[in-house]
Amino acid sequence: MKNVVIVTTMWDKVAEDEGRRREQELKEKDSLFKPLLDGGATMMHHERTVESATKVINYLLEKSYDHLDCS
């Protein structure tokens, strides 16, 4: 699962504390994302901005680059 990225959205639709509470629920419940996260997946926010999208894409590209054998 180390190559899995869970990207959450809609952060502009809820208050920050409500979003954090929901995110925590996603992380902690076995019926939601906890098994993926325990297996090495990463959770990131997408906040409907170019910068946010770029951050997610760059993270994925870095992960991809890390797996290349450049020797």
Q: What descriptive keywords fit this protein?
A:
single chain, 71 residues, mainly alpha, two-stranded parallel sheet
Describe the structure in your own words.
By secondary structure, the protein is mainly α. Strands 1-2 form a two-stranded parallel ribbon.
Q: Would you spell out the secondary-structure blueprint of this structure?
A:
Layout: E1 5-8, H1 16-28, H2 34-38, E2 42-45, H3 50-66
Parallel strand pairs: 1-2
Could you provide a short overview of the structure?
Helix content is 49%, strand content 11%. With 71 residues, it is mostly helical.
The ordered string of helix (H) and strand (E) elements is EHHEH
> What is the makeup of the main sheet?
2 strands, parallel
Structural category is mainly alpha
Uncertain spans: none
Radius of gyration computed on alpha carbons: 14 Å
Q: State the end-to-end distance.
A: 25 Å
How does the overall form come out from the CA principal axes?
A: flat
Task: Estimate what percentage of residues fall within beta strands.
Answer: 5-15%
Helix coverage percent: 40-55%
Mean pLDDT equals 89
How many DSSP H or I helices?
A: 3
Report the strand count.
2
> Largest sheet, order of strands side by side?
1-2
